[in-house]
């Protein structure tokens, strides 16, 4: 779905009601902007979290904690110093 908005004073952009309803965006919701080349991509906070989880999914190891691995790695580095 393509639609357009105009940037007003202070950089404000209105998200059309049809898109807000379709995406479940309500008053006070947190939105995340990110730049992709020459595009701005606006996502809901939950969509941004799901995207980050999908990016990290190949690195998840069942039964292992990434946090525990990081702490262990840092301890090994500290021991070498």
Total DSSP helices? 3
Number of strands: 2
Largest sheet geometry: 2 strands, antiparallel
Q: How are the strands ordered across the major sheet? A: 1-2
Written account of the structure:
The chain is an alpha+beta fold and 81 residues long. A hairpin with a 2-residue loop joins strand 1 (31-36) and strand 2 (39-44). The protein has one domain (9-80). The chain has a two-stranded antiparallel sheet. It contains three helices and two strands; from the N terminus they run H-E-E-H-H. The relative contact order is 0.08. The radius of gyration is 20 Å and the shape is elongated.
Task: Describe the structure concisely for a colleague.
The protein is α+β, with helices and mostly antiparallel strands and about 80 residues long. The chain has helices at about 15-25, 45-55, 65-80, and strands at about 30-35, 40-45.
List keywords for this structure.
81 residues, alpha+beta, two-stranded antiparallel sheet
Write the layout of secondary structure elements.
Blueprint: H1 17-23, E1 31-36, E2 39-44, H2 45-56, H3 66-80
Antiparallel strand pairs: 1-2
